[in-house]
Design a protein that fits this description.
The structure is a single chain. The protein has 301 residues and is of the alpha/beta class. Helices cover 44% and strands 15% of the residues. It has helices at residues 8-22, 40-50, 73-80, 97-103, 136-153, 158-183, 201-207, 227-240, 254-263, 285-300; strands at residues 33-37, 54-58, 84-87, 108-111, 120-121, 127-128, 192-197, 210-216, 244-248, 266-271. Strands 2-1-3-4 form a 4-stranded parallel sheet. Strand 9, helix 9 and strand 10 (266-271) form a beta-alpha-beta unit. It is globular.
Length: 301
């Protein structure tokens, strides 16, 4: 995979080389900065920072499961034309490795999670849990890394990017406070999460939930489960008296409904954990988080 630049020093070196080769700007020939993010929620976060200075696109379309995504030739063209590519990092974007190899050209590549300490899990394909965006306070670091990347490729916009980042960080802090208020309405003993795959660790840690278990004991929806693991999860749900099983909208609910029949719990299958929606209920990252919290609170109160 193409080298991913995590530090500002590395970015500075690359930028200087790029400026030397192309002139005084890292923008494309039509003078429009081309910024690309791997996912829709990253594109939205980036757009809030870029403002009117760039139009941000996403490699993954709305509703796509990154764990099972089949890349299209158009994705290669998007990357080839980009000046700046924003990734989550932490081995989340396996689908993008062959695209980078085929795209050619030069661009800055920023890992939004750079500088954060992920939860380690040697038993899973990633080795670490990449789902850091489900904690808005961790997303503050995403914003800072994206801001710095934009400034590297468009120094003239530094003031705009800094002001926009500061404003968005304020919104993230307000979102965090709102989530805490909503979660406080759930009795402590009912703050229990059962999910389809292991995606909510950071969210649970931030807001005081206990993760009872997952149908697919993996950080990826593309993994599988066994009869023994399902039997163990059923016992865990009964022992903990967990009220519900939560799934992302793109996840297959069949096993969840089978487990629900044996445990007499409800299935909430309309969370949006890895993709935005066109319009309501998850048109933006903040909307996505509020929708998920509303669904969780309603099911557990």
């Amino acid at each position: 995979m193409k080298k991913i630049f995590n530090s500002i020093t590395e970015l500075t070196i690359l930028t200087l080389l790029f400026f030397t080769a192309c002139g005084s700007t890292a923008k494309s020939d039509d003078n429009a900065l081309r910024v690309l993010a791997s996912t829709t929620f990253l594109a939205d976060i980036t757009q809030n920072i870029a403002g009117s200075r760039a139009q941000v696109d996403s490699v993954l379309p709305v509703g796509a499961d990154p764990h099972a995504y089949q890349a299209a030739p158009a994705d290669v063209a998007k990357i080839a034309e980009s000046d700046l590519l924003i990734l989550n990092g932490l081995e989340y974007e396996h689908f993008i490795e062959p695209l980078l190899e085929n795209a050619g050209g030069e661009r800055l590549i920023i890992e939004a999670t750079a500088g954060l300490s992920p939860r380690e899990d040697a038993g899973n394909e990633h080795g670490v849990d990449p789902h850091m965006w489900l904690d808005p306070i961790l997303v503050i670091t995403y914003v800072e890394n994206i801001r710095d990347g934009l400034i590297q490729v468009d120094a003239e916009g530094a003031g705009t990017y800094t002001a926009n980042a500061d404003a968005y960080i304020t919104q993230l802090k307000e979102l965090d406070a709102w989530i805490i208020e909503q979660v406080n309405s759930i009795p402590t003993e009912r703050r229990l999460l059962v999910t389809n795959h292991e995606a909510v660790g950071y969210f649970a840690e931030r807001y005081g939930f206990e993760v009872v278990g997952a149908i697919i004991p993996s950080l990826s929806t593309d993994a599988g489960t066994s009869a023994r693991e399902l039997a163990a999860l059923i016992e865990q749900i009964k022992t903990a008296d967990a009220p519900a099983i939560f799934l992302g909208e793109v996840e297959n609910p069949d096993l969840a409904h089978q487990i629900a029949e044996e445990t007499n719990v409800k299935v909430v299958d309309n969370l949006h954990l890895e993709s935005l929606t066109v319009g309501s209920p998850a048109a933006t990252y903040i909307d996505m988080m509020k929708h998920n919290v509303n669904q969780i609170v309603e099911a557990l109160k």
